[in-house]
Amino acid sequence: MATGSPPMPEQPAPAALDPEFEAVLRECLDGLTGSDVQLRADSDLTVYSIDSLTVVRLMVAVEEAFGVLIPDEAITFEIFSSPGALWNVVSGLREESRGH
Q1: How far apart are CA 71 and CA 90, in angstroms?
Q2: Which residues make Cβ contacts (< 8 Å) with residue 23, sequence separation at least 6?
Q3: What local confidence, expressed as pLDDT, does residue 4 receive?
Q4: Cβ neighbours for 36, distance < 8 A, ≥ 6 positions apart
Q5: CA–CA separation, 27 vs 83, rounded Å?
Q6: Structural domains in the chain plus CATH codes
Q7: How many angstroms separate the first and last alpha carbons of the chain?
Q8: Quick one: DSSP state of residue 11?
Q9: Is the pTM for the entire model greater than 0.70?
Q10: What is the pLDDT of residues 9-48, one digit of tens each?
């Protein structure tokens, strides 16, 4: 009979970001993150004290880079809380535009 706790299952590695998306994100967060900071889909962007100007700059940069228009009703603070949340909106809009 074994003693101790059972081995913990390995957690999946956080999803890597689309390289182009990460470049846009880093450019907009210039000065807020160091180049040595690893940005992942689940990174908490709120720790960088993003203000409304940064949100607008990021939204415009993403719209221009990926050829999408984020509708007003989709613009919430939550979509700017992590790279993954914003990427989900952007990639969904890209899929919609390809379908039309």
Answers
A1: 11
A2: none
A3: 57
A4: none
A5: 13
A6: 19-32+40-99 (1.10.1200.10)
A7: 61
A8: P
A9: yes
A10: 554 455 678 899 999 998 888 777 777 788 899 999 888 8
